[in-house]
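Progress report, Aim 2. The chain analyzed during this reporting quarter is listed below.
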Amino acid sequence: MTSKITYIGDLRCSAEHLQSGTIIESDAPTDNHGKGEKFSPTDMCATSLAECALTTIAILGKDKDINIDGAYCNLEKVMAANPRRISEIKCEFIFKNQYSDEQKKTIEEIAYNCPVSKSLHPDLKQTLSFVYQ
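Predicted structure tokens for the chain:
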């Protein structure tokens, strides 16, 4: 098993990562009866895309001399109704190091093909942009 998720009341859940014991709590968003005091489940889904892309770039980039230390992502989750769902995840990746054109191409290819990206439904629009400073 990967985790144990417990409903703790007041539209909140607690998830324990069984290998490490790390706890993450979630809250329903303010536009859906919650307090919005923690990440919502859909926030975590969208955030997982950016975290997976950055982590996968770091892993696969090692062999190509790509160091992404200090890189980050500004993320926006767009919700739709009927049915309520994430309709788009907008990721603006910011990289602070200098990269060749070939390294930039590798970074972008990895981001578009990370495991979370490939696991999301094809109807969910993934808008990725890359800024190299």
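The chain has three helices and six strands. The radius of gyration is 17 Å. These observations will guide the mutagenesis work planned for the next reporting period.
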